[in-house]
Amino acid sequence: MQKFQRFISLASKQNPKFLSPSFQGFQASNFQCPQQKAWSSSFFRNWDQYGNRVETVSHFLQMANELDGRNDVPGALQYYTKALENLTRYSTLQSILPSHEVSLIAHIYMRKGSIEYQEGKNQEALLSFQKARDFFAQCSGMELLTAECFANIGSLHLELGNCETAIKNLQMSYYMYEMRKSEEYVVKTAHALSLAFSKIGCHEESVQYLKKCIQIKVKLLGEKHKDCANFYMQAGEAMMSAKRYKEALESFKKALQIKVELVGPKHPDISKCYSQMGFAYSALGKSEDALQSFMTSLWIKQKSLGNGSKAVLEEHINIGNLHFKIGAFEKALESFETALKICNKSKMFERSAFIHYKLGSVYLKLDEPNAAIKRLEEGLKIKNKRLGLDEEPSLAEFYEMFGLTYFNMRKFDKAKQFYTDSLRIYIQENGKESEEAIRLYTSLGLTESFLNNHELSMENYEHALKGQIAALGEKHYKLGYTYHHIANLYYEKKNFEKAVEFYNKAIDSLAGEVNSDNVDFMEIHIDTAFAFREMKKFEEAIQNFEQAMHIAIQNFGIGYYKVTKIKKELQILYKKEGKFEQLEKLQRLLGF
Question: What is the pTM of this model?
Answer without folding.
Answer: 0.80
